[in-house]
Structures are given as C-alpha cells and as structure tokens.
C-alpha cells in the first residue's frame, strides 16, 4: 500500500484512540477494557511517535483532535500529518499496513453487490441494457 492509502486507512483508528485517551494516547499503557479500534489506534500512534523526527507536527495534530474529536478540519490535519510521515518512511508505511485488519466485503439480498474497486458498469436490474 502507498502512504496515502495507509494514512487514510489508519486515520479513523488514530482518531478513535485520541478521542478515548486525548493527547495522552502517546504514553497510554495497554488498557484491557479498550475496544479493538481504540487499541489499534493507540498502537499506530505509538509507532508513529517512536521516531523523534515525527513528533512536532504529529503532536499538534493529536492535540487538535483531542480538543474537538468531531472537528473535520482537525481530523484532516491529522491525516495530512500522518501522510507526510508515511511518505518519508516506506518501512513504517508497510508496518502500519500490516497492522490494519483485513478488509472484507459482504453483499446480501437481491441485486446486492460488494466491490472494493469498480472500473466499469455494475448493473443489478432485471432486463437492464448496457450501451457503450
């Protein structure tokens, strides 16, 4: 996975961890009561934080999300900071990509379709005509 894809994928986990722990997410020890999303987010933040050169912008982005977890701009700034870090460190990008849960798609019901990427037409209608 590339840095942008990983940054986008890890951002919700980081946000969940920051929402639960605030800016203390960096130093928080394992909490057995934490759910999987928050726990994974905490581990991701700690991996990002482990490299001192990443800390300045990351710290501010974490603090901004901690102040207002619902702020879309703060979340976007956090994603941007993570993306910057990951673009400079392909090893860390690969490491974080491996931490992410496997993606699964489920479709059920008449005409249901489960697709991760579609570069063409998907038609589930009876008697549909596709014209090119």
Task: Summarize this structure as a short list of keywords or feature phrases.
55% helix; 0% strand; 132 residues; mainly alpha
Written overview of the protein:
The protein is mostly helical. It has one domain (3-99). The protein has helices at 3-21, 36-49, 55-67, 72-87, 90-99. Helix 3 packs antiparallel against helix 4. The two termini are 33 Å apart.
Class by alpha and beta content:
mainly alpha
Radius of gyration: 18 Å
What's the number of helices?
5
Q: Helix and strand string, N-terminal first? A: HHHHH
Bin the strand percentage.
under 5%
Could you give a short account of the major beta sheet? none
Question: What portion of residues is helical?
Answer: 40-55%
Q: How does the overall form come out from the CA principal axes? A: elongated
Distance between the termini: 33 Å
* Mean pLDDT over all positions: 81
- How many discrete structural domains? 1
Counted beta strands:
0
| Uncertain spans | none
């Amino acid at each position: 996975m590339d840095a942008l894809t990983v940054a986008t994928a890890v951002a919700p986990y980081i946000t969940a961890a920051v929402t639960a722990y605030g800016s203390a997410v960096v130093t928080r020890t394992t909490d057995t009561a934490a759910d999987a999303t928050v726990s994974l987010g905490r581990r991701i933040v700690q991996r990002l934080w482990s490299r001192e050169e990443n800390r300045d912008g990351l710290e501010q982005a974490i603090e901004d999300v901690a102040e207002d977890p619902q702020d879309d701009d703060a979340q976007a700034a956090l994603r941007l900071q993570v993306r910057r870090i990951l673009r400079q460190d392909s090893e860390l990008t690969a490491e974080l990509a491996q931490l992410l849960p496997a993606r699964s798609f489920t479709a059920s019901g008449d005409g249901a379709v489960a697709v991760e990427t579609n570069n063409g037409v998907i038609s589930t209608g009876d008697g549909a005509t596709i014209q090119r």
